[in-house]
Write a structure and sequence with these properties.
There is one protein chain. The chain is mainly α and about 240 residues long. About 80% of the residues lie in helices and about 0% in strands. The chain has one domain. The protein is built from eleven helices and no strands. The radius of gyration is 18 Å and the shape is globular. The N and C termini lie far apart (about 40 Å).
């Protein structure tokens, strides 16, 4: 959370000195990098432990089913709309600048940064490892990556990026407490299912940053819960 706030502050200072064209190009460049990160995560579809537990054809089918089921759940819960609503409330509460463009940038920064910082496997595995007493190395790595990304985000989208620390803190705090309660290491196949499904969702974020799609990635977030549950279910019958 501290890394995101510091990175956002640096991004604001830098972004105010850049012309609009440069800031737009920075956002698109970040979108390309996000797609690379997504591809690395999607590669978990080839994870040997996952394939060994569910079979060679099952991982992609599990991801497909998880995203469809998760999308239905998320759309019914209106997760994306609620995130945008929260971003709008925060904009009115913390930003003194008026105007539809300023509001759009604030909400976009809050929603996209929140999704990116919360979806990645390190957000889950780092907090879980911390709760299990296995050290904070993964959280430290995630902090570094989030801090760098927040500089690029905030340079273009403003202070909404900094307020993404709210959902990040809530999510990672809950997972840390869950890790304390679990007291054992999560199966490698479950980790792979979360990583691959998260990678697919991150592709959606990259497409949003590139202005290729307005996919409601927030509505797909339940897929990160459905995928490991389906993996455990298939494992029982394989």
């Amino acid at each position: 959370m501290a890394a995101i706030i510091v990175g956002s502050g640096l991004g604001i200072l830098l972004g105010s000195r850049l012309p609009d064209r440069t800031r737009e190009l920075t956002t698109q460049a970040l979108g390309l990098v996000v797609l690379v990160v997504a591809a690395l995560n999607v590669a978990a579809l080839l994870d040997a432990d996952w394939i060994g537990d569910v079979g060679s054809a099952a991982p992609i089918l599990i991801c497909l089913a998880a995203i469809v089921i998760g999308g239905v759940i998320g759309s019914l819960l209106r997760i994306e709309a609620r995130l945008e609503g929260m971003g709008g409330w925060l904009q009115r509460r913390f930003s003194h600048k008026e105007g539809s463009e300023e509001r759009r940038r604030f909400i976009e920064g809050f929603v996209d940064a929140s999704l990116l910082f919360c979806i990645g496997p390190l957000a889950i595995l780092g907090a879980l490892s911390d709760g299990l007493g296995q050290g904070i190395e993964q959280l430290a790595l995630k902090s570094t990556l989030d801090g760098v990304a927040s500089v690029a985000f905030a340079a273009t989208l403003g202070w909404g990026v900094a307020l993404s620390v709210i959902p990040v803190g809530i999510l990672q705090g809950v997972i840390t407490l869950l890790g304390i309660g679990v007291g054992s290491v999560v199966a490698a196949s479950v980790v792979a299912s979360i990583t691959a499904t998260g990678g697919i969702l991150i592709i959606g974020i990259g497409l949003r940053l590139l202005r290729v799609s307005t996919l409601a990635v927030g509505d797909l977030l339940p897929a990160l819960v459905v995928a490991p549950l389906l993996t455990l279910l298939v494992t029982q019958f394989y």
